[in-house]
Amino acid sequence: MRNYDVIIIGTGVAGLFAALNLGSDKNILIVTKGTLEDNDSFLAQGGICVQRDETDFEPFLEDTLRAGHYENNEAAVATMITSSQNIISDLIGLGVAFDKQGEGFSYTKEGAHSRARILHCKDMTGKEINSKLIARVKELANVTILENSTLVDLLVADERCHGVVLRDQSGKLANLYAQATLLATGGIGGLFSKSTNFAHLTGDAIAIALKHGIRVKDLDYVQIHPTSLYTGRPGKAFLMSESLRGEGAILVGKDGQRFADELLPRDLLTKEIYAQMEKDRLPYVRMLLKGHIDGPIAERFPGIHGHCLEEGYDLAEDYIPVVPAQHYFMGGIEVDLQSKTSLANLYAAGETSCNGVHGKNRLASNSLLESLVFSKRAAQAIEATFHREPPCLFPEPDARTIADGLDESTNTLLKLIGIEAEMHAK
Q: Do 206 and 253 share a domain, yes or no?
């Protein structure tokens, strides 16, 4: 029997940061479907928002609410904003090296922001943060990391979560028991034919929550990012970061003319791009940086510049073909401000959860911040209520029963995601 104090499913920033905020007396298991780096946090390019000063609270709040069409949970937004400076301090303490400008930090502005409040690490902010969290977690003697293992069910009895069922690479199933379980499995991009997400992120935890009647929220709130690199090939889309437009890049149609405000909220700009594509009868529009961004483009955006070169485009010189792609999921497993789900002993954080902070549409560069703020609060809630009890033992898992249940709940999830998913799904 494998018994832990806390099981965390997912190795993005939410899962890792939760582990770092749990006590060293806790026996923790962290599980990932792929390798440690195979998560969407690692792919985040643009940056992470922070409240600049006391005068920025109201503007930051309003920007987030407006982008979310005022369907946000305002208490969640306020919690995220007021926690942001402490989160940044935590990250700096872990060795995250944000870009500097003179003696201070370099801040950028992205779509739907009223001011520059986004810290960044070139165009690889998620990679920098995730790498530092991974390095620190690996140092912890109380943490075991299990890669290439898939969550296929929860152990539920007496209206409580008692652990998880995992499937390893060989297909073998196993029950693993825990006093508390945190789901941080990311989004649903793998359900779409064109997404900036890793293909293995298929909403597993959300589907399993549906199976057990755990409350979910806003499952039709799917965000399409306005700009991914158009290649004409199937498979994962490469994100052309919002920070490109935030620092001046323009979008033009076939006639070379701008057709929209490049800093519109993502959902509104996506509609403008689709309309222009239809007008031009082309599967893309074009982005231009030359003459519109100050400073060396390859130095500010080394990752994007390098990838574009591999595809035959010079980011500093050429028109770059871009097209919308599925990017983020605002819905998920419903949680409160302590990241508690409707099932006792079960928590969720990051993109797999939904506390309403993003409303109907996420504001650029709020995702890393949200994940860090509410995964830390999950860890604090686990610590506050933790006590060890003998595990409630379950029969050995049956492969056929679990597969049938997961297939059914995944189909239900697809239906609940709604019409937008049908437009983009495989």
A: no
- Residues 37 and 26: their CA atoms lie apart, in Å, by 24
Q: Which residue has the tokens 């870009």?
A: 99
Amino acid at residue number 266: R
Residue 147 sits in a domain whose CATH number is: 3.50.50.60
Which tokens is 122 given? Answer: 């070139």
Kindly report, residue by residue over 229-267, the tens digit of the pLDDT.
999 998 899 999 999 999 999 999 999 999 999 999 999
The answer on 188 and 48 residing in a single domain is: yes
Range list of H helices, 52-170: 57-67, 74-93, 125-138
The set of catalytic residues is 266
Residue 227 contacts by C-beta under 8 Å, 6 or more apart in sequence?
A: 239, 240, 241, 242, 244, 245, 251, 273, 287, 322, 323, 324
**Residue-range definition of the domain harbouring residue 416:** 2-221+330-424
Return the pLDDT at 179.
Answer: 98
**Structural domains in the chain (count):** 2
By three-state DSSP, how is residue 58 classified?
helix
Question: Sorting pLDDT into bands at 50, 70 and 90, what band is 403?
Answer: confident
DSSP codes of every residue in 351-414: GGEE-STTTTSPPTT-HHHHHHHHHHHHHHHHHHH---------PPPPHHHHHHHHHHHHHHHH
Q: What is the pTM of this model?
A: 0.95
Give residue-wise pLDDT tens across range 65-81.
999 999 999 999 999 99
Average of per-residue pLDDT across 271-282: 98
Residue 366: CB atoms within 10 A of its CB come to 27
DSSP characters over 249-274: -EEE-TTS-B-S-TTS-HHHHHHHHH
The residue out of 296, 323, 350 marking a domain boundary is 323
